[in-house]
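Standup notes, structure subgroup. Blocker cleared on the iron/sulfur cluster input:
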Amino acid sequence: MIKFWKKRLEGSVLTENLEVDSELEKIKKELKNTITKKFAGSLAIRMVDSGSCNACEAECNALSNPYYDLERLGIYFVASPRHADVMLLSGVMTLNMLPHAKDAYEQMSSPKWVITLGDCTSEKCPIKNSFAIAGKIDESFRVAYHIKGCPPEPKDIVLGLLDFLRSRR
Ligand code: SF4
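Run returned:
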């Protein structure tokens, strides 16, 4: 045991230094300031997967890791639509999910916004002619902002949220 601890204490640090993306830090700072100014310090997001391949959700999960750490900026992913300001829709709008997405939207209190995430929610959707798809999302919801990409990287999502917030009065 003593040998083990001696080796550990004498050895060098094995972890790598974190590479700081100064552009991302700038975006995060502006995001935090904008949320403080326009949303009293917190923006609650309800994520709704209406038929995605789950890669968009995986990128969103990364937003909670210590590198992006969106909660530190005042952005929270909430379980109930009743607590949400924004519905973040990902994936194609399937016939099965359309009533549930509409129900979630109905439960949100006003003012409320829909942001679409990923190419599946746009004209670029690769399977838009499938029998299981209810149609274009903007026929069922008023879309306030679209974040493109397949999947969008976490930085694109952060930038998209900032762009959306900039457009709010
Ligand atoms: S946009 Fe791409 S990554 Fe996102 S759900 Fe569609 S296929 Fe998957």
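Discussed briefly. The helical segments are 2-10, 22-38, 55-62, 98-107, 154-167.
Next: hand off to the docking folks.
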